[in-house]
Amino acid sequence: MSKQWFKDSVVYQIYPRSFQDSNNDGIGDLNGIKSRLSYLKKLGVDVLWLNPIYRSPDKDNGYDIADYETIQDVYGTMDDFDSLLSDVHSHGMKLLMDLVVNHTSDQHEWFQESKKSKDNPFSDFYIWRDPVDGHEPNNWSSFFSGSTWTYVPERKQYYLHLFAPAQPDLNWENPEVRQHVYSLMKFWLDKGVDGFRMDVINLISKPNGLPNIPGVKSGNPGKIVADGPKLNDYLKEMNKEVLSHYDIMTVGEMPDSSPKDAIKYTGLDSNELNMVFQFQHVSLSPNPDQRLGKWNNVPVKLTELKKALNRWQKELDGKGWNSLYWNNHDQPRAVSRFGNDDDEYRIISAKMLGTTLHLMQGTPYIYEGEEIGMTNAHYTDLDQYEDLESINAYHELVDQEKIVDKSTMLKYLSNISRDNARTPMQWNDKNNAGFSSVKPWFALNHNYRLINVEDSLANKDSVFYYYQKLIKLRHDNKIIKYGTFEEIDPDDDQVYAYRRHYEGVTLLVISNFTDKIISRDYGQSNDSTLLIDNYDDDKITELRPYEAKAYLFK
Ligand code: ISL
Ligand code: CA
């Protein structure tokens, strides 16, 4: 098998808590995933990525790991895992694990030891600093609200946590930490897993001196921590010691990274990672009031979206490799955010989004439920939320700082909260949507009677079969995998069109992002070969609401 299989693959992301419960405790689990492999095979995906399933106090749904080599009880046992892995392989698919090593849980043994004193074997495993004038060492604020520093009386010091206090950052400067990480990676690779999605991996090398963010009382250090001074060294070392010894794929989650950074870390001869998750197209409408950060309900402008995605297509071409995604467990549902989730246009616009993304250069990722057009939860009350980022932000911005009122913040949450993606998978219209026979850990989206897998499988015009076709088209057409990218009319604020070119063949992709009938001529005619269309017939230059189609020209 060539080491390039990651370029030919389509990945399906599973959020295990919310995928399928097999033992009726209301929480999704490994045996549940196993029971749905033939469904995933039918869809046609090549690789599955599981969000963290390790032992964890679940302060951040598994992104706070207490033991990297144990399966979280509610998900099953190590035997269940081995059996799942072997079934994934016998279905001809591969399995990626989530590697969360920027931080551990505060319940991890390393941290429990580290916090005891300054002179124990683990004392230097985390980032400890003395108070400055009796205060936090700098003005950094956490991704999940509050300071990034928490004081520990035993050591009379603060430890750094870019995320929640329960997620202390590991000290990558310490070679022993790195060796422990490499060893746990080998543990999973030796079991036969096929690679890793690496959580916030561009944050592991902290800037020298941990400088204050200038000009503010406090601020999130994301931008100054990303792409740190030793990141290349660490990734090269990890590649040399671990990755290069296995035929696997890797994708690094890199908030705030630019195409230039991505080429540095995933470039063809960088010997580091295969690709990154960039954030540009999912960070397009930050609140104009900077203090509110990502919390907003402003619709994304199509011209901005095109600018973001086209930039990555153009700059990585021939130099790196893109990952293509509309949504994941941290982002709202794609059809609600970039399409139209009204009954009238939900299906057609979900197919339009799929077309736009899946015909680009890169490895596409489908997030569970996207393939049936699942929508945002549209919650209206704080009590309905689970996610610590959302809940903390609400308390900080509404109750403490009072910079936004309650109803506005609830609108922001309903637009952008991570919980929109975390409602249980909708398998059928029966009790609890076929996810579980008991009340799920997190409320189902109320629309499961209308939107579910059973219905999608019974209806040949469903989003499911359209995604199945998109995946097959990629498998069958080199131009979709490897063609170069040519942008068309970047200033058109209604249509997203582009061309791909490969060995004398051209692929033209056209997506109408509006609910209007409009007309565009890119040279398509009755003689062009129509590859796919989300309407039954082709009206050539006339584009109906959310119509998407692609032509081949030889
Ligand atoms: O989207 C975000 C920016 O506000 C954050 O929700 C998110 O935390 C960030 O994208 C990093 O995400 C990853 O690391 C987090 C974890 O909570 C996310 O689920 C994970 O994908 C900390 O491990
Ligand atoms: Ca269960």
Explain what you see:
- The protein has 554 residues and is α/β, with parallel strands linked by helices.
- The protein has helices spanning 30-35, 37-43, 78-90, 109-114, 175-191, 222-225, 231-241, 259-266, 302-316, 334-337, 346-358, 388-400, 406-416, 453-458, 463-476, 478-482, and strands at 11-14, 47-50, 54-55, 67-71, 94-99, 128-129, 149-152, 157-160, 195-198, 249-253, 275-277, 323-324, 363-367, 484-487, 495-502, 505-512, 518-519, 529-533, 542-543, 548-553.
- The protein has an eight-stranded parallel beta sheet with strand order 11-10-9-5-2-1-13-12, with helices on one face. Strands 14-15-16-20-18 form a five-stranded antiparallel beta sheet.
- The mean pLDDT is 97.
- Bound molecules: 6-O-alpha-D-glucopyranosyl-D-fructose and calcium ion.
